[in-house]
């Protein structure tokens, strides 16, 4: 049901786009990560909603199949292509579905007495984009100047995934945008407008997208380009962590690292306290296994570190908590 606030946001979103984008006819492609619930809402009963969105925007919208996620996440990929204006029109429609699902999650969590900061506060949203690694420099700018200018302009928070966080074989970095709908639309407009200035973007935007099966988007063969060709081949990833974080990963008497190994089926080894990088003083975490196992182990490692920090305590070198 439309509300006065929604109507105000729609009007604000339309005026939020950069002037050069509002009449933009150049080709554009935008890839968003969406939950299974949002993907279902975008498709609609019998594909009615996605057909309506495509007709209204004149953009093409494709979704990866259920279970086909962006590496290291549990989120599906929505590929929106067309003219710059058509893509942004479709994005605005998709953001409406993301907002609806976020509101439902928030209501459920309030009933259960839980909170999730990713849902956003006061109606804010968190949306993730996939940007080719080779194009990210244009968004970041020298010394981060461009992305800071974007944030000053759109008033949204824009975070670009660090190179050290990339998983093996992944060719795109995640760009996380947080804010109200008009702020996010402005951010997307600025990002796409900037990308369109890069000659390499034309090649990316003009790339044919593999024919989609009914309402479900690219085939598995297309999506597998995101990861190394042989997912079952042994993969090794080395992460650097502080001494305190190494303790959180190990856990008391090695409980945490044993749990990570058991759940992920990957081999996880933390270097000894005297085996550190002389430049950073960090210890090494070496993860070996299949690509899927390594992805999962990395997520679990980050989760253990985050839990330690959120608990307000830190672990010492032996894996014992110190306050």
TrEMBL record:
- K Homology domain spans which residues? 26-99, 123-196, 233-306
Give the keywords, sorted: Repeat, RNA-binding
Compositional bias (Acidic residues): 1-10, 102-120
Q: Where is this region: Disordered?
A: 1-20, 101-121
Q: Name one GO molecular function term.
A: RNA binding
Q: Which Pfam families match?
A: KH_1
Query: Which PANTHER family does this entry report, sorted A to Z?
Result: KH DOMAIN CONTAINING RNA BINDING PROTEIN (PTHR10288)
User: Which protein is depicted?
Assistant: K Homology domain-containing protein
